[in-house]
Amino acid sequence: MLIFRTDPSVETGIGHLKRSAYLASLLKKKIDILFCINKDKVVARLLDERNVAYCVLKELNIVKQESIKSIVFDLRKFSSMDMEWLNQAKERGITTIQITDLGMNQQPVDYTIDASIEQLFPFDKKKQVLIGPDYTLLHHKFRHFNKVRRKYRKRVKNIFVSLGGSVQYRQLRKVVDLLSRFRFNVKAAPGFYLKKSGRKILKRLYPNLRFVGKTESLARAFFEADVAFITPGMAAAEAAAVGTPCLYFHNNERQKCIAKSFENQGVGLEISHIDALSEGHIIEIMNSLTLEKRIEMGNKGKKLVDGNGARRIVAFFEHKGII
Known about the structure:
Blueprint: E1 2-6, H1 15-27, E2 33-37, H2 41-49, E3 54-56, E4 70-74, H3 80-92, E5 95-100, E6 111-114, E7 129-131, H4 140-147, E8 158-162, H5 169-180, E9 185-188, H6 196-205, E10 209-211, H7 219-223, E11 227-230, H8 234-242, E12 246-250, H9 253-264, E13 268-273, H10 279-288, H11 291-304, H12 309-320
Parallel strand pairs: 1-2, 1-4, 2-3, 4-5, 5-6, 6-7, 8-9, 8-11, 9-10, 11-12, 12-13
């Protein structure tokens, strides 16, 4: 059995769950999968929709589970119980893997996966690390759209807004309101915590707004956009993979670091804290995104993230006997 230990929430975001759930979908034919989560109705519903078995952290005693072969930790923070699990796994000879970002919160695991372009906290060279955007965990549709030759409009018309799985109504409305003033066609990812009543209000206020429906992947939504407005995390790599230029807004220092690393690769522009967004700012930025600039950004993005990260990770797991 392979255990995935992840703890998404409205505070930490849903990206950790999305990437782990996709990796699990590729591995479930090779080994039994079990997700271990904290209590959260939204997370439980998402796992149910994907037919993924799960349990609550306190319900599982790994000492008594002899069938556990490996544990994948995909956490923003390790609790005292997570550290206890890690120590118990080492004592029992269970293989441990950590999926992390920016080199943050490194733990003494057997293998580490970090798809960040740059690491705030570099890894020990002696560690077994899969590092860099070649190991970004993206749905296979991103690999498909990465290969498709795309056309770029002379003028920006369609904008995709993806502010994270835990985006709040207030933030989304502010961005949509600004974009609507310039008559852009706006499509938005509603996240997992935005209420239906909030969506209805936004659609009534902004006739040019559409929401992405239920989907396993945002690949098409990113691909069809001329520009994407995002808070960086998985979304930055998703947009790069399909060749869509991005404007990056941040809520915290972690997102700001990710935005800067992508901007340094020439695939987007780091703008500001999301609450500092202004109409004048939007005009200045959009005027700078000429057709030539957007084509250049798109081509660099597709070279940076090719969408084959999941394949590489599965091959590594097979080679190391993790599954």
